[in-house]
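Long-time lurker, first post. I've been practising inverse folding by hand and with some scripts of my own, and I keep getting stuck on stretches where the structure tokens seem ambiguous. Below is the full token string for one chain I'm working on. Before anyone asks, I'm not after the true native sequence, just a reasonable design that respects the backbone. If someone could post their per-position residues I'd love to compare against what I wrote down in my notebook.
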């Protein structure tokens, strides 16, 4: 278990934040009682974290990507490479926002290097907010969020293809916001969620940065109050994640 792992136990499923730090890496594991897994984002180091705790990567059915920033897709190539090495032979599904490109470039590079020796298919599906998707017995509903790129030199850029995800299983609801600004319409999805996983990259609230790029801890805590339990993740520097609720 990694240093800032958070675990929620539901009715026949569990959710574990393997690791999350803003600008570095985020990956979240969903484990179902069927013995299969889903991954929410796959930042750098996710392969190490999965293997170190004994996750059977033959049973990892899909990744749900929120957007293409490196700290959310940086572990995809190594994950594909490991599954090739162990001889996985079942499809590995990737859900990604409509018009996202980073993950496609990674997949294309991987299959170009190994054109004849990847023993599993990689179905990639671009999805839009409001769709309803079935992954086995779990119902997935992506929803649109506002998230712009930003760098110290370039400032705030244009909005990216970005999604949050609502997962429903055994009558329970788990919501993952991904990275998002206050301009996102989060309330309808968050209210009374059994588990909310929400980012809080900013230390101080207010301004265009919070409206269009990332949430502050203050805003994340306000949203978390409407859920039954919440994990506040994607904290900057060495700040620890926060848990809210029972």
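-- Answer (accepted) --
I ran through it position by position. Result:
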């Amino acid at each position: 278990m990694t240093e800032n792992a958070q675990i929620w136990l539901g009715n026949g499923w569990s959710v574990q934040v393997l690791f999350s730090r803003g600008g570095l890496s985020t990956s979240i594991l969903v484990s179902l009682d069927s013995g299969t897994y889903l991954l929410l984002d796959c930042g750098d180091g996710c392969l190490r974290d999965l293997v170190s705790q004994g996750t059977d990567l033959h049973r990892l059915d899909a990744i749900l990507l929120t957007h293409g920033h490196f700290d959310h897709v940086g572990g995809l190539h190594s994950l594909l490479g490991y599954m090739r090495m162990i001889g996985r032979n079942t499809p590995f599904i990737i859900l990604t926002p409509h018009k996202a490109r980073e993950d496609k470039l990674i997949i294309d590079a991987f299959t170009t290097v190994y054109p004849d020796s990847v023993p599993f298919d990689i179905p990639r599906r671009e999805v839009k907010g409001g769709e309803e998707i079935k992954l086995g017995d779990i119902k997935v509903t992506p929803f649109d969020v506002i998230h712009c790129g930003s760098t110290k030199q370039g400032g705030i850029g244009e909005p990216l293809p970005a999604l949050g995800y609502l997962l429903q299983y055994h009558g329970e609801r788990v919501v993952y916001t991904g990275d998002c600004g206050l301009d996102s319409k989060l309330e309808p999805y968050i209210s009374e969620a059994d588990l909310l996983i929400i980012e809080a990259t900013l230390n101080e609230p207010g301004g265009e940065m919070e409206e269009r790029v990332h949430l502050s801890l203050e805003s994340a805590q306000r949203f978390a109050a409407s859920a039954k339990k919440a994990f506040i993740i994607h904290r900057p520097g060495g700040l620890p994640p926060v848990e809210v609720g029972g």
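A couple of notes from the structure itself: The chain has a mean pLDDT of 95. The first strand starts at residue 6 and ends at 9. Happy to go over any region you disagree with.
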